[in-house]
Amino acid sequence: MFGTYIHVPFCVHRCDYCAFATWTDRGHLMDAYVAACMTEVGRACLPPSTSVFFGGGTPSLLPGEALAGLLASVELAPGAEVTVECNPETVDEALLVAYRRAGVTRLSFGVQSMVPSVLATLGRRHDPLAVRRAVSAAAAAGFGDSYSVDLIFGAAGETLAEWRRTLDEVLALDPVPAHVSAYGLTVEPGTPLAADPARHPDPDDQADKYLLADRLLAGAGFGWYEISNWARPGAECRHNQLYWREGEYRGIGAAAHSHETLPGGSARRWWNVRTPERYIRQIGAGLDPTAADDVLDAPARRLEAAQLALRTRAGVPRDRLAVDPLIEHLVRLEGDRWVLTVEGRLLANEVALRLVA
Which of 111, 158, 311, 348 has the smallest set of CB atoms within 10 Å of its CB? Predict the structure, then answer.
């Protein structure tokens, strides 16, 4: 398993909660940026990728020809999964047909909510009708249900009934998505959301909404396989599973992160310079775009691997978790592995403190 992540740092509008490396005034750099990414791929001599993920930013701002050329520069393993994140208002059937012909196998729509007032609170620019149009365009382009919907719960003023409405409407889409991600709203430093405490989420409210999501999604045939992710059987995102399993991947583009295993069980992470201008300059000058790196020794990597595995349906081996009366209701033993209960998923960090190195 080897994954390639390609970062697309362009957006039309920055959402109030977003702290990602993305810019709304750099669209004029798109052609040069794509060319630089292709050059970085060529220099990296990557092994065949079992998964490719275009993230951002708003990757669906890339024209069909640009994405096709960039994807063609990556050697794919047979049956590779190729995902593109899309904002619903930025796609139409022609664009998605071009993506499909280029080799894209999976779409990920940033829906967040199906309630207009909640979308406005989050600073999103689309409406529920745009979501339905995007799903119809995806189906017409040949993707069928091979798409994911990303949701956010816990926005200020969002009621439990409105969150249920979002879930019900997502499950009523035609076709129904094969994958749903649902994340509690988080406050990131430096964002407009962080500067407005009145809009900060309430943990108890988010817990109620998480439990509702798990119940409704399970009832619709979705199984959880990571704390914030549910899928129909066989539709799990292979690229994200690579991250949770501490696999090897290469990040291409500004601010993109990479991970490789080193001899002896240690691992190295590194990440590229953050801004697209500097990235383009570094590549154009024949320089390494790496900004910094970090090496985890073998014990630290084993602990991190257990922390990530604990978040997943696979759980951790029995001898890696010290279960005491305070957490015994938060995990259950399945075979020889401890797996989080639904309550445990709400308190995963507390459980992780009991992991044995």
Answer: 348
